[in-house]
Write a structure and sequence with these properties.
Structural class: mainly alpha
Largest sheet: none
Distance between the termini: 27 Å
Shape: globular
Radius of gyration: 12 Å
């Protein structure tokens, strides 16, 4: 049986504040009209942001422009 979206997020995120922040920012962009970074018919912005992260299409950056390594 496939995990629900909240279960998948809990399994992958593991309470990582940085990753949670990254996904939250990307979901906000998608809700405001941003386009997915990959071809999809998915409409749920949380699922889209999660898949973008899994594919390595999004990353969190410091204000200086340095990437943050996420666990």
């Amino acid at each position: 049986m496939e995990d629900s979206l909240p279960q998948m997020l809990m399994n992958e995120v593991n309470s990582s504040f940085q990753l949670t922040t990254l996904l939250q920012k990307r979901v906000r962009e998608l809700v405001r009209g941003g386009k997915p970074l990959y071809e999809t018919r998915e409409r749920n912005p949380i699922r889209i942001a999660f898949e973008e992260w899994k594919r390595g299409l999004i990353s969190l950056e410091h204000e200086e422009g340095e990437s943050v390594d996420l666990p």
